Amino acid sequence: MTTNHIKPITGNCLCGDTTILLDTADTGEQVRTPSPFLSLSRFHILTQTCFNALSQIACHCQDCKQSSGSAFSTNVLVLQNEVTIRGPIKTYESKAPSGNIVQRIFCSKCGSPITHKSEAFGDAQAIQTGNFKQFSRVPFHSELFTKNRWSGLGEIPGARQVAAMV
After folding, report:
1. Counting Cβ atoms within 10 Å, is residue 98 exposed (0-12), middle (13-18) or buried (19+)?
2. 55 and which of 42, 84, 134, 141 could share a cystine (Cβ 3.0–4.6 Å)?
3. How many folded domains does the chain comprise?
């Protein structure tokens, strides 16, 4: 099996006290998706190129809007064992409309969102890309929950449009 290693990427929260290291490798391994709320075809949409090229996902669900304080959140899915978070963090758990528990991790000093985990993601977690300068040039693979997109916002060019996760 060939492994394409993507050079480690480091980001930080607004105050700089919490750092995030993404050290990813494309091994071609299957990712576990145990959630009955996320069909394999929907999970494939999320992961099809995200693990290989760290393509971004824009999420328009209400939880992501509220946790980001914006019209949508920007994320990349990364395997949990490829993420290192250092610094002061707090965790908040909430129940998504699907019934899944979502664990949101943020800097305890400045409140910047860092990541969120859900059993729907299997072995992965969603990392907020606004904490990394490098992601300003990374294309978007998908837009999720587009049925909740704010009026006046158009589609991100080239991004797969997913109305809802069913």
Report:
1. middle
2. 141
3. 1
